[in-house]
Amino acid sequence: MNMYTIRGGASLGLILLLLGAGPAVAPADPGLDLQQYVRPRPRMVGDPFPYFVFALIGDSHIVKGGGADQRYLKASDRSRDLLATYVKDINNHDPRVNLAVHLGDITDLGAMGEFTSARRALDSLTCPLYPVLGNHDNFRSDAKAGWLAFARRQSANYTFDLLDLHFIVIDCTLDPYAPPYVDCDSTLRDWVAGDLARNSWKPTIVLSHFNMWERPWNAMFDTTLNYAEYRGMPELRKVLEDANNVVAVINGHVHANRVEQHNGIYYVDVGATLVGPPSIRYFYVYPDRIEVRHEDLSDQVLAGVVTGLCPGCCCCFGPEEVCGFIDGALSDKDFTIPIGSPAELAEIPEAGPGAISLQVRSVGVAGTSAGISSDLTGTLEISLHDVRGRRLDRCAVWKEERAIDIDLVRNLRAFESLPAGIYFLRVAVRGASATGKIALIR
Whole-prediction pTM value? Predict the structure, then answer.
C-alpha cells in the first residue's frame, strides 16, 4: 500500500503523516478528540505494544419480550443480557480498548423501546462507541430517525480517525428496509471515492453492516443461490480497490465469523452477539499490521444458552454444518492484516549500472522509511531540504549491500519539529542521486 518509486533525478509526491498530528479531518463527534484515548509513546516497527485497540460488536438484535428465535438461532430472550456482558468484557479488557464499533442490527425491529434498551447497555462502555446502521434498525419508514436519534448523528455515513488509521462508516440500507434489497447507490459510492481520495495517505478500514462478498451458500441466510448480489456492491468494491489505501472491510449481518482476501483487501465477517458460540473480536493496531484476536464471552452460562440453540436447528442444513459455519475456523477469528510491512521495502526496483533507485513508504503509524538500491558501494548521504533548497538535516550511512532500508524519522531528527509544508529528500552515493518531494501534514 502506498509505495513510491523514485529513480535518479526524478521526483514523486509523497504524503507523510507523522504521529501527533492535529485533529481528524472529519471528526466523528463535535469536540470529541480520540487522541486522548491513546497513551503517547515512541513508535517504531517491532514495538511489542499495540498503539491502540478497538473492539467489534456484531448484531445484537435487542428485542423486548418473546422467546428465542429458533429459525435464525437467536437467543432473543437474552439479547440485552448478552449485549451488557459484551460491554463488561470490553471494559475489562487488558490492554484497554480505545474505541468500540457496533456493526448494526442493534435492535430487532427498530422500535424505540429496543433502542432505549440498547442505549442503557452501551452507555456503560468506557470508550467511545461508533455505531453502524443495520437493516433491522430500519424496518420503519421514518427516514432512519430511530437509529439517528440513538446514534446522535445526522447521517449514517460518516468518518473518523485515530492516529493515522482512517475509518469510513457506510449505510446501504433502503428506507424502509425491504428484504432482501440493499443498494449501495452512486451517491454513496461517489462520497466514499471522494473521502478515500482526500485521505489517500492513510490506511483505511471500511465499516459496513452488509457483507460485500457472499458464498454461493450460507448455512443461515442470504445466499447467492436465492437472489442476486446486493445492488451497487460490485461497483463499490471497485471503488475501494482502485483507491489503494483500503486495508479491510468489516461487517456484521451474516451472523458468522469469516475472513477472506480479495484483490488486496481483507473482508471480515463478525458474528452476532446472540447466535452461535459468542466471542468478541479485538483489533490490535501496530505500525505495520493489525492483529485480530477473539475472546470467548466471560459469562459461561449465557454462552451455553446461546450455543445450545445451534444443534436444535430446524433448517435444511445439518446441525454440524450450521454450527461450524457460525463459529468459523480458528483462522477466521485469529489472523493478521498487514498495513505496511518493512519486509516489503526489500522489493526495491533494480537500479541500472551506476544509478540509484529510491523507494519511500509510509508504514501506517510507524513513520517513514526509505529503501535504496544501487550497485555502488560507499557512503550514502541522505539530506532533507526545504523548498528554497536549504538543507535542514542530513545523515550518512555506509552502504555495501545492493539494497538497504533507512528509517528516515529516526535518522533525520528535523522531522520531529518541522511545520507542515513541502520538503525534499535527496539521497546520493558516489555521484549518483535521487530526489523525492514530501508533503508533510501536521
Answer: 0.71
